[in-house]
Amino acid sequence: MVSQQSTIRRPVEAGPPGAREPAGQGQADEAGGACPADGRRQVPGLPVRPDLDGILADPDAPSLVFQPIVDLRRGVTAGYEALARFGPDPRNAPHLVFGEADRRGCAAELEARVLRRALAARDHLPDRCFLAVNVFPHLLSSPEVAAVWRGADLSRIVLELNEAVDIERATGLTSTSQELRDHGAFLAMDDVGSGYAGLRQLTHIRPDFVKLDASLVSNIDDDQVKIALTELVGGFASRLNGWVIAEGVERVQELTMLVALGVPLGQGFLLGRPSARWQELDPAVARRIRLLSARSDRSSRIVSLMEPVRISTGDYGRCGQVPGCPPCARSPAPSDDAGSPSPGGRPEEHAEEHAEEHETLRGDGSGGGTAIIVSNRCRPVAVRLAGGAGGRESQRIPTSLFALPDEPVTEVARRAMTRPAGCRFDPVIIVTEMGRPLGLVRMERLMLRLADLSAA
């Protein structure tokens, strides 16, 4: 965890995972109760250790504060994370306290206290919110911690398993995870990207939530590698039916990029600081998120670039009168002299009139002389591009790529760039699910949109 949470979070963050001794090597008593002092003298110049004995002797320690977790599409609070606090003494920063407790073999008792308080706080949660709480995976099956959750109702609780702890330390975690789910809990993998091989751990746990480490979120708007890693983790999580939570969101630019990338949930000082109360999302921040989400939804879909152009039967003769054809469906049926529609559809004499309707239906001037040429079944077969300045003749090229209106811009661009070199920059035809033409997208506009999305 980085700057914003290093003084409030309770996972082990004092240093690399290997820098701490495994649990059980401290001088805990055999009963697993209060942890006596180790009797070592303080070496001058070394940091003062946390007052772990005083903390364990205080029945009210630790206290909890709650940081909002925000829905980055709707701009509402989706949940909170419970964070342990051990008073104002800087020696008792959470990561130092838990690191010392782990070193001395007292971490399970401390974990049990935090989980017990989180369960009590859960009963006062706002509606439609969850409560996340960090736990060390290797302590879930310890007698102290197991006594808290076994037999308890864990609904609306998200247990964040710290990724900085090696999976090998958490023996039997797969079966324990299933038991926790049976009690109603959700599981999250915390700090993904900061420690051990996170993707390997994801395959073991198959979490419901994946929390991106704040080091990946910091300055993500200006780092293509972080963007790629976020997309990788997001894709992996979606295949597991999991949700991504981005931690450490502190800047508007980071928020904008995360929304554009489709990250569903976020947490950080920009969205809300830890508080002893269930704080609501700032209305200004909520409005910004909704605007960013709406803008991202529109700009990231290929239909936002679609140009209305003429639909022409060209030299393929008259239209086959396919009911699902958008031009045909919009064209008014011709009437007989009495004003009633002609039975049996269009008579033969209206073929030329209908062809003209195809030519002019989308001819509002925006497409100029450009047209999509369709077969007699209204399937796009070619594009006629208007001639440019200097009297250049119009150009007719065969269609080479179709896309549905809601396809992402990035996916259409990827497919377009895999076409043969000779047609790689030909227009993309936007069609309905039945293959009927709606309009086209020029590659120049597609490339400019990609640049805008990259710089957003």
UniProtKB/TrEMBL annotation:
<feature type="region of interest" description="Disordered">
    <location>
        <begin position="1"/>
        <end position="54"/>
    </location>
</feature>
<dbReference type="InterPro" id="IPR001633">
    <property type="entry name" value="EAL_dom"/>
</dbReference>
<protein>
    <submittedName>
        <fullName>Diguanylate phosphodiesterase</fullName>
    </submittedName>
</protein>
<feature type="compositionally biased region" description="Basic and acidic residues">
    <location>
        <begin position="346"/>
        <end position="362"/>
    </location>
</feature>
<feature type="domain" description="EAL">
    <location>
        <begin position="45"/>
        <end position="288"/>
    </location>
</feature>
<dbReference type="Pfam" id="PF00563">
    <property type="entry name" value="EAL"/>
</dbReference>
<dbReference type="InterPro" id="IPR035919">
    <property type="entry name" value="EAL_sf"/>
</dbReference>
<dbReference type="GO" id="GO:0071111">
    <property type="term" value="F:cyclic-guanylate-specific phosphodiesterase activity"/>
</dbReference>
<feature type="compositionally biased region" description="Low complexity">
    <location>
        <begin position="23"/>
        <end position="34"/>
    </location>
</feature>
<feature type="region of interest" description="Disordered">
    <location>
        <begin position="327"/>
        <end position="369"/>
    </location>
</feature>
<feature type="compositionally biased region" description="Low complexity">
    <location>
        <begin position="330"/>
        <end position="345"/>
    </location>
</feature>
<dbReference type="InterPro" id="IPR050706">
    <property type="entry name" value="Cyclic-di-GMP_PDE-like"/>
</dbReference>
